[in-house]
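Incident review: delayed structure delivery

Summary: a single-chain prediction request sat in the queue longer than the usual turnaround. Root cause was a stuck worker, restarted by the on-call engineer. No data loss occurred. The affected request and its eventual output are reproduced below so the record is complete for anyone auditing the incident later.

Affected input:
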Amino acid sequence: MKAVPNILAICLIVTLTCGSTAAISMAMKTKTSMIDAISFFEDKLGSLENQDRYELVRSTVSGAFGWQRQWTYDLLVCNVQDLSRTERDQEWESFIYDFNDSRRSFFSESSRLDDEELREKVKKLLEKMLAEVEQSFLDVGSDITCN
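Output delivered after worker restart:
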């Protein structure tokens, strides 16, 4: 969570240079979506039937990590071109740290599911989705050239 001030600073730069008020809400939504997703595991899964649990996990994880991918492309990598290479690399490292921290939280929470079959489905789903998102991070890299 140490990147929150950095994210807000980036959003401020983007807002001032691009006039985009959406940038601030994007950064805040990224953080809150991860917190919301983890709280789904903690608070809501216990009372749902197996298929409903699986669908909730799928939609929650898909939304949270899809959000991070979009944020990476649009905000961090392309829109903040005024940052020096060192500053951009630092932001990238903070972002990857947060991503990995979120991944650990998801796997930790999913391991609490009491149904073994559901737990395996969720684990496979998480692994697939996280691999896709991580690959998109690697494809983009911190030195992308934006149009």
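Verification: The CA atoms of residues 74 and 80 lie 9 Å apart.
Action items: add queue-age alerting; document worker restart procedure.
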